[in-house]
Amino acid sequence: MRTALILLFLLALAALPGALLPQRSINLRATNEFIAANGWWGEFLDRVQAYDVYASVWFSAIYLLLFVSIVGCLIPRTAEYAKALRAKPVLTPRNLSRLPHHTSADDQRDPAEVVAAAKARLRGWRLVEREEDGGVRTVSAEKGFLRETGNLVFHFAMLGLIVSLAIGKMINYEGQVIVLANGSQFCNGGTFGYDSFRPGLRVDGTELTPFCVRVNGFEADYLPSGVADQFTADIDYQSGADLDTGTWRPYSLQVNSPLRTEGDRVYLLGHGYAPVFTVTFPNGETRTQSIQWRPVDQQTLLSEGATKFDPPGVTDPEQRRKQQLAVTGLFAPTQVVVDNVLSSHFPDLTDPGVAVDVMRGDLGIDSGRGQSIFEIDQSLVDSGRLTRVARENMSLGEQITLDDGTVIAFTDVQRWVSLQVSHDPAQPWVLGFAVTMLLGLGVSLVIKRRRLWVRATPTGGGRTVVEVGGLARTDQAGYGEEFSRIAAELSEPNGQRKD
């Protein structure tokens, strides 16, 4: 057990880097920024898997050793406990006066009456009555075996918790996706629908629980200070038989009120804005594009992003790559412009504005390589394949005209929500074992293990010496008072206690 406690302490200590350092599985961008900002120290932490703590070799080794240690501790303790349950209470010691608790008194009753009174008073204890030489009668009693039961239940529940967590890590999955709050839908049909996806060790993403979510709208309530009070997403969902019938069921999704369907949970993580730009090309054709921009200031929701356009009617790949457009920059839901620098002073959508750079040229979207939706490839700018053709601050409804007659208008703002889908069938087991651990711990702390012996020795003349001895099997206080009360009742004629 000492080894298990040491390993449990080491496991808690090993988990600290996971709470203090960014983790690659949760936030890859923050992890890379931390490594770049801390030089050799950041690279050293990466080599020792400090950014992948819960998947690291050393954390898994401690976890496995803790499991083995608990199993190795519980097997002999369970066998010993089963043996103790079948055993009778130990013989009455020859010299009860050596025990921590002891009383002795003369009694007018004979030994048989004393023993009968003791057995009646100790009802509920494990009792054994014995006879010794010279007409001496004894009673051995034990109580508090549930203490060890609670202790074993606690440790078996801990073992079950460890196993459940391990199984959960194998069969769970978790994904995040951004959905525009304009009636756009997300369906849990495969990993391709997610912006980020973290599968368990036995999940390949081909058998996800089927369901769909449609985000109809989003409302955010703020205090005058700009602190968020409540987020609510108005959604519809369909799962199970509803997928066949096309039935949509409404749900009000809030931060602390996830949608639970088909064993999965859908959480509302956050929200942001997607500015809408309409581009009118020289040939008169228009393109309207809305893409989420990511917040760079969570307090005011000042956001950055890049909205990209392909020119219409251009079939030659070389010419198309020269005429692609990207509107990049900052978006402020409540704009403040000081010295031509845009910022935001409130997160709600009261006076939206953008500060944009319009880039023209090759955006790299035809290269076949993935790229961020929030920014352009800086290497294309450095190489001259992508150049800035305009820079302007714009309020909602304003527009700018480029040198070739292209008109870019800031026409609308839409909201988006960030959803997280979590699937963990082992979660009810984890909860059940955690509750069982608390119950077992409570029983082991409240119940005291103790022993009590009564010896009735006849002395002649109708007198009997009644000795009562007690021994607490734990270090908990309180048995002295109980022993004194029992001893007083057993030592008095007819079981009456002296005042």
Rg of Cα set = 37 Å
- % residues in beta strands: 35-45%
Structural class, by secondary structure, is: alpha+beta
Shape: elongated
How far apart lie the N and C ends? 46 Å
Find the count of extended strands (DSSP E, 2+ residues).
Answer: 23
Alpha plus pi helix count: 12
Overall pLDDT score: 88
The poorly predicted ranges are 494-499
Number of domains: 4
Describe it.
By secondary structure, the protein is an alpha+beta fold. Helices cover 31% and strands 36% of the residues. The longest helix is centred in the first third of the chain and has 30 residues. The two termini are 46 Å apart. The relative contact order is 0.15. The C terminus is likely disordered. This is Cytochrome c biogenesis protein ResB. It is a multi-pass membrane protein. Keywords: Cytochrome c-type biogenesis, Membrane, Transmembrane, Transmembrane helix. It is found in: Membrane.
